[in-house]
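Sat 14:20. Reprocessing the chain from the morning session after the first attempt stalled halfway. Input below, unchanged.
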Amino acid sequence: MAPPILKLDAIKLSFGGAPLLDGAELQVEPGDRICLVGRNGSGKSTLLKIAAGQVEPQSGEIFRHPSATIRYLPQAPDFGGFTTVQAYAEAGLGPNDDPHRVNYLLEHLGLSGTEDPQTLSGGEARRAALAKVLAPQPDILLLDEPTNHLDLPTIEWLEEELLRTRGALLVISHDRRFLERVSRATVWLDRGRSLRLDRGFEHFEAWRDSVLEAEELEQHKLGRQIEREEHWLRYGVTARRKRNMRRLSELKTMRADHRGHKGAQGRITAQVAEGRDSGKLVIEAEDISKSYDGGAPVVRDFSMRINRGDCIGIVGPNGAGKTTLLKMLIGELEPDTGFVRHGSKLDIAVLDQRREVLDPEETLAHYLTDGRGDNLLVNGEAKHVTGYMKDFLFQPEQARTPIRNLSGGEKARLVLARILARPTNLLILDEPTNDLDMETLDLLQEVVASYAGTVILVSHDRDFLDRTVTSTLAPANPDAPDGRWIAYAGGYTDMLAQRGAEAREKKRAAQDAGRSAPSGSKPSQGAGREAARKLSYKQKFALESLPVKIEEAQARLAKIEAEMADPALFAKNPDGFAARAKTHDALKAEIEAMEAEWLELEMLREEMEGK
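Finished this time. C-alpha cells:
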C-alpha cells in the first residue's frame, strides 16, 4: 500500500462547548477519491480547513508530504487584491505549471478572464475559484461544496474533469449524483469522530444505517449488563471484599460510558400543513414570451397547463431563462406577449435560493411565529415554538438567537420549517437543495413527493429531480438556448433518455428517407414516416433480449457486492478487492447503458404503435 501524502490523527477542536472534532482521523493516499460526509455542523468544512492548513487544531498530529502540492476550494473564495479573474486564477499556479491550462479552464467554465472578481455572481465566483485550484493539477484537491451555484452542464463537465485528474481528491458536497460519480471511498464525520468506508458514496447510506444499528444494539447490551451487575451487588452471595470492590469499580465505569454515550443526531420530523384544495387548473400559460432590453427572447411562444398535483422541474444552463420562466408562471413578472392565468384558491409559498426573506436581526422564534407569542399553528394544532424547532434539529436555547448567527444550512432548514408550518397548496422552490445536508434533503424529498398540492421547482440536483418531479421543462437547445422550452415526462434522467431517442430517431428517419428517395430528388417526408413506422429486426431483438442481459448482469453485480461486503477481503487481498471494485464499476455502467437503451427502444415502440 502506498504511503499517505496527507494524514490527520487524533484531531481535537472545540469552540468553547462540546467538542466539534474529538479524535477525528483522515488519511489520503495517491490517487484516492474520498468524499467527506456528515450532518451540517458536524465539522466537515473545519476538518477540510485543517487538512489545508487554514485552521490549527487544539491537539492531534498532522502529516503532509513535503513534496505534495495541495489546493483548497473554500465555500467563500477571497478575491481581494485581484483586478481580473485571469490574474486570480493564475495565482494558483506553481513555478513549473503550464500557464495555458488557466485559459483552457476559463474557456470551459464560461469565463473570459477579463471579469472583475468583485462583481461576479455566485456561479461565476465558484467557476473562477475552480479554475484557480484545478489549474496546477495538484497532488491533493480539497473541494468544499464545488457544485454550489453551478448549472447542470458545468457540474457534468466538472465530473469528467475530476475523473481525468491523476491527483487525490477529498470533496464535500450535498449532490448525491456528483458524489456517486467521483468517489471511491467515504469518510463519515459523526459526533466528532470519523469512520471510513473503502467504497464510494453509493454504498454509504446502507453502511451508515448498519453502523448505527450495531451501536444501538451495543448500548442496549451495556444497559442490560449494568442491570445484572447492580442486581449482583445488591442481592448476590457475598464474595471477598476485594472482588466486590473491583466489580463496583467496573460498574461505575460502565455507568459512565452509558451516560456519556452521545447517540446519533435525531432525524428531522415534520408534518406538512395541509392547505385547502386549489382548483383543478392551477396555472395556464398561453404563447408567453419575454426578452430584456430588446435582446433575444429568453422565453418564446411557451404554452403549458399545470394541474393540481403536478410536480414540475425546470432545468437548464445559467442564463437560459429558468428564473424568468418561473416568475412569469407565478405572476411576479409580466410576459411581453401572451398571457398567464391562475386557477382559484391558490395559497402559494416560496423558498427562495438567496434566503432574501430572512431578517438577520430577527430571532428564530419571532420568525417562526411572526411575533405572535410562543406558539404556532400546524394543521390547526397549537405547538410551542421550541418543540417545533426540535423537529428541525434546533436546540431550545437557539429560540432567541439572531438569524445572522446561523450557518447557510441552518438558514435553509429554518425557511423550510416556516414553509411547512403554513397551509399551502402551491410550493415554489428555487434551488431548494443549496446548503442542505443529506438528512434534510431526504426530508424535503419526502415532503415534495407526498405533497398533495402542486410543486414547481428549479434545481441543478439530478438525484433530487429524478426522485420528485413528474415532468421536466428544459431548453429545446441546451447548448445555445434560444427561448424555446420543451416539457418532458418524468425526471432529469427520463428527459435525457427522451432527448437521446429524439435525436437518434431524427437521424434514422433522415437516413431512411435519403435511401428511399430516387437519385437526384429530395427525400419526401412520407418516405421518412413510412420507414419509421416499424422497428427494425435489430431493434426488436434488442428490445426482447436486453431485459435478460440486464437481469444476468445484475446477478453478477450482486455476487461481486456480496464478496466485497466481507470486511476481511480488503485486509487479506487488497489487489483482489481492487479488481472486484473495478469490475463492479464497469458492470454498473454497463447495466445503466442497457437500461437507457431499453427505455429508448420501448418509448420508440410505443410511439410507433400509437400508445
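DSSP finds 19 helices and 20 strands in the chain.
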